[in-house]
Specification:
The protein has 675 residues and is an alpha+beta fold. Among the domains are: 146-220, Alpha-Beta Plaits, CATH 3.30.70; 339-448 and 455-647, no CATH class. It has 23 helices and twelve strands. The chain has helices at residues 18-28, 49-72, 81-84, 91-97, 101-135, 166-176, 206-215, 229-255, 261-283, 299-312, 342-348, 359-374, 377-393, 399-422, 429-438, 456-484, 488-510, 514-518, 527-547, 555-567, 569-578, 581-600, 606-644, and strands spanning 2-3, 6-14, 32-34, 87-89, 153-161, 183-190, 194-202, 285-286, 290-298, 315-321, 332-333, 666-668. The strands form four sheets. Strands 2, 3, 8, 9 and 10 form a five-stranded antiparallel beta sheet that branches. A hairpin with a 3-residue loop joins strand 8 (285-286) and strand 9 (290-298). Helix 13 (377-393) runs antiparallel to helix 14 (399-422), helix 17 (488-510) runs antiparallel to helix 19 (527-547) and helix 19 crosses helix 20 (555-567).
Length: 675
């Protein structure tokens, strides 16, 4: 249960050492840099936006090239690729890449150029196919669509609206001009939308024929071909084939760069690191020959980093305590049992000023409550073996994924424990299999403690007891925080009086006949104990009324606020009832598993019944595990966030964000400190 102590660090070094100093700090990932020194006549800030723009442009180009490469030459990944983590690279690999990144960028630009060529050719093919489709109705024409006639004749090539035959065309022309000179008309093609025609007449009557044609809707083609439609079709087909060939060549060329995928990926990380480094350079206070860097560093790393810097460079490192009222970042450090739930805490909020890290206490309840909600031994063992195998197999797994699997590993252990306590192993699988396939109804997996399905009230009482322990522990955490701040009276006002009130009411209730009867308890506390309990509750209630509004100077307001604070006792009742979800989710898991087993055994014994049972078993229990695993995760988090944290924890701390190698594809290995 520890929030790492932070120290302020100030580094004053020669400007000639700026690059190696910053690269060492970036690889160590131990310092969060902040700029607190203002500009003056000696120190100023350097504008590095142009350099960062170049790095970001290169990173964007490499990312685009990688996407193209993945499209035409997909990387083969294993089923467990997400668990394998990033490949480790050393600082020497980073330095060596600086000698060849120009070559890598040439490859990047080649890939993007080839991708652009593919896109342009695909666009050209679409355009040519559109022209080819428009040419289809004219394929019956044996000469150029631009033909205008001979020395004595005039030709008209175009379209008429709708579907028309030769008779209707000639009739329409006659109706427009009964004195129309002789005309020869051929229908090239006809469809529902248009009719393609060729008309020929003597040149002397061309104007009359053209006028009559336009009167019935004649229109010339928008893009008549110089050659015959058949020749134009072949030309378009050749151009389409050429564009497709160029696309295939470009795709093959892109695929040939698959061997350079790793270099392209590393270039993205390389430029990301350089961009971040230049962002830090822009924040430094610099003179002509020196620079100053300030920030935060975890206290446990401070002395080691100071020794290493002073050993390697001529500089000065100053370490000091953080301002208690300042905005120091937060970094958590917990033992292997508690560290896996740090991600759950971070999703709610890191500890704020004066708060403690609750992970060590929270982890115990988290695992226990999760196990109670799932409470099936087989499901728990599947989680244990699955997560354990992944943790042992994939040593290079990312830290966040490793913590998640560790958390579910411990949740699996708790689930298996409670499953055996309640006698659930894939529900009642043992008994169903023994009865259906072996005729042994006497064989079954009995509970070590009791079976919640048969004794739900007992499980409800146990759930509420767990809730009370959880809530009272939350109050104890509040007292612990006050103790660290030496606020002794606040412990009495905000914790002690509430303990007196709540415990007193519980003791009094257990001394009556009603509460033990409702809870089906087989004992009643003596009346004298109940009297002591109600007296303690009364003292606690009076104390809350008098102190809950103590920040107000007005006596009336103070009492009113105190009375409102006492009203908060009703929230404890609702909080305790919230833990009935332990009963509900635990029963849901067991009942659904039992129903699945019953459905599987409906076909009876024999080979056919065994096959049906196995199929229903695999599908049903897979779905049951998935659904109730999600439910247990969500509701366990809710009990932590609302009920437990609501008693003492607010969060609001700022996460420690060190200047480090924030990479996507490779993990730059952090070296150990020297000295």
């Amino acid at each position: 249960m520890a929030v790492l102590q932070m120290k302020r660090i100030s580094i004053c070094a020669l400007k000639k050492d700026r690059k190696p100093v910053l690269e060492l700090l970036q690889r160590r990932g131990a310092v969060e840099v902040d700029s607190v020194l203002p500009e003056d006549s000696v120190f100023s800030h350097t504008d590095t936006s142009a350099n960062r723009s170049v790095f970001q442009k290169n990173m964007a180009a490499a990312t685009a090239a990688l996407e193209v490469l993945d499209q035409y030459a997909p990387e083969k990944k294993s089923l467990f690729a997400s668990l394998e983590g990033r490949e480790l690279k050393t600082g020497e690999d980073y330095d060596a890449f600086a000698q060849k990144y120009n070559t890598v960028m040439e490859t990047v630009y080649q890939i993007t150029a080839l991708s652009r060529s593919i896109s342009e050719n695909k666009s050209e093919i679409l355009k040519l196919e559109g022209q080819l489709e428009a040419l289809q109705p004219w394929l019956g024409l044996d000469f150029s669509m631009r033909f205008k006639g001979t020395g004595c004749t005039s030709a008209f090539i175009g379209t008429l609206p709708g579907g028309m035959d030769l008779e209707s065309i000639l009739t329409g022309l006659s109706q427009q001009n009964p004195q129309l000179p002789p005309i020869h008309v051929e229908v090239i093609s006809s469809s529902q939308n248009q009719t393609c025609v060729f008309a020929l007449c003597h040149k002397d009557g061309a104007s009359q024929v053209e006028e009559a044609l336009r009167a019935i809707g004649f229109a010339q083609p928008s893009n008549p071909t110089k050659h015959s439609p058949v020749q134009r079709k072949q030309e378009l087909a050749d151009r389409i084939a050429q564009a497709q060939a160029e696309i295939e060549q470009a795709q093959q060329k892109i695929s040939s760069f698959a061997g350079q995928r790793a270099d392209i990926q590393f270039s993205i990380d390389y430029f990301a690191m350089r961009s971040e480094k230049y962002e830090i350079i822009g924040e430094l206070a610099q003179s002509k020959r020196a620079f100053v860097l300030t920030g935060y560093i975890p206290a446990k790393k401070a002395d080691g980093l100071k020794r290493e810097l002073e050993k390697r460079f001529d500089l000065s490192v100053d370490l000091g305590d953080c301002d208690p009222a300042g905005d120091a970042p937060v970094m958590l450090q917990n033992n292997p049992f508690s560290a896996p739930v740090e991600g759950v805490l971070e999703s709610f909020g890191l500890p704020g000023r004066g708060e403690v890290d609750p992970c060590s206490i929270m982890s115990i309840f988290y695992y226990v409550l999760f196990g109670l909600m799932l409470s099936d031994a087989a499901y728990g063992l599947l989680m244990v073996f699955g997560c354990g195998f992944a943790l042992l197999k994939f040593k290079n797994m990312e830290g966040g994924m490793r913590k998640t699997l560790q958390m579910f590993f411990y949740c699996g252990l708790s689930t298996a424990f409670w499953g055996f306590m309640f006698g659930s192993f894939f529900g009642d699988l043992v008994g169903v299999v023994a009865t259906t396939f072996f005729g042994r109804p006497d064989i079954a997996l009995g509970p070590i403690w009791f079976e919640p399905v048969k004794e739900p009230m007992r499980m409800l009482v146990f759930s509420m007891l767990m809730g009370l322990i959880h809530l009272f522990t939350g109050l104890a955490m509040k007292a612990y925080q006050y103790a660290k701040q030496k606020a002794w009276l606040d412990i009495l006002y905000d914790v002690g009086f509430w303990y007196m009130l709540l415990i007193g009411l519980i003791v009094f209730g257990l001394s009556t006949e009603m509460l033990p009867s409702i809870l089906q308890l087989n004992f009643i506390l003596p009346g004298t104990v109940g009297t002591a309990g109600i007296i303690a509750a009364g003292v606690g209630a009076v104390g809350i009324i008098l102190t809950a509004g103590r920040e107000s100077r007005n006596p009336v307001k103070r009492i009113l606020k105190g009375a409102y604070g006492l009203y908060g006792v009703t929230s404890y009742l609702s909080d305790v009832l919230s833990y009935s979800r332990l009963l509900a989710l635990g029963l849901a898991t067991g009942v659904i598993a039992t129903v699945i087993n019953s459905m599987g055994s409906m076909m009876g014994g024999g080979i056919g019944g065994a096959i049906v049972f196995i199929l229903i078993f695999l599908v049903g229990h897979t779905l049951n595990l998935a659904i109730n695993l999600l439910g247990a995760y969500v509701h366990t988090n809710r009990l932590q966030f609302v009920e437990f944290f609501g008693k003492f924890y607010e969060g609001g701390g700022r996460q420690f964000q060190p200047f480090a190698a924030h990479t996507k594809y490779y993990n730059i290995k952090e070296e150990t400190y020297n000295g």
